[in-house]
Specification:
With about 140 residues, this protein is an alpha+beta fold. The protein folds into two domains: about 30 residues; about 80 residues, no CATH class. It has three helices and six strands; from the N terminus they run αββαββαββ. The strands form two sheets. Strands 3-4-5-6 form a four-stranded mixed sheet. Strands 1-2 form a two-stranded antiparallel sheet. It starts with a helix and ends with a strand. The model has no long low-confidence stretch (mean pLDDT about 85).
Length: about 140
């Protein structure tokens, strides 16, 4: 069988194409981070894949969310009428009740947690009057 220049060129084009797609595949495989923690639309860290460790910031937020839920339940047991008020502090988070949808009242200084305003806490958890997370910042 006689080899022509044209068939040799096609051979090299196919070989380069295959190598290119293999390299792209390896890049995507090793570049993607399937096992990590991501933020959902409310600002809560959620597990993506199967991460080997839980970062400190995720643990801190999880503990604060658990604490916020407890503070809400205690206030609910005390028959507190939920308006726009602060429920207290959970670690580095202030826990606040807000309207849904948010209103201008939620942004008034007198309706925000003192610890957050005074920079005692760096983050806040906003709950609605049913104790459901509105957002975490």
């Amino acid at each position: 069988m006689i080899r022509t220049k044209k068939s040799g060129r096609i051979y090299w084009i196919i070989l380069i194409g295959v190598i290119f797609f293999i390299l792209i595949g390896l890049f995507v495989f090793f570049r993607s981070n399937e096992d990590t923690w991501t933020l959902d639309s409310q600002g809560v860290y959620v597990k993506h894949g199967n991460p080997a460790v839980i970062p400190a910031k995720v643990l801190e937020q999880q503990e604060a969310l658990f604490c916020a839920d407890n503070k809400y339940r205690i206030a609910q047991d005390d028959r507190l009428e939920f308006n726009s008020q602060c429920l207290g502090r959970c670690g580095n988070y202030s826990v606040d009740i807000v309207h849904v949808p948010r209103t201008a009242d939620d942004d008034l200084s007198q309706n925000q947690c003192e610890d957050y305003k005074n920079q005692v806490t760096s983050h806040f958890i906003e709950l609605n009057n049913k104790g459901i997370i509105v957002r975490v910042v």
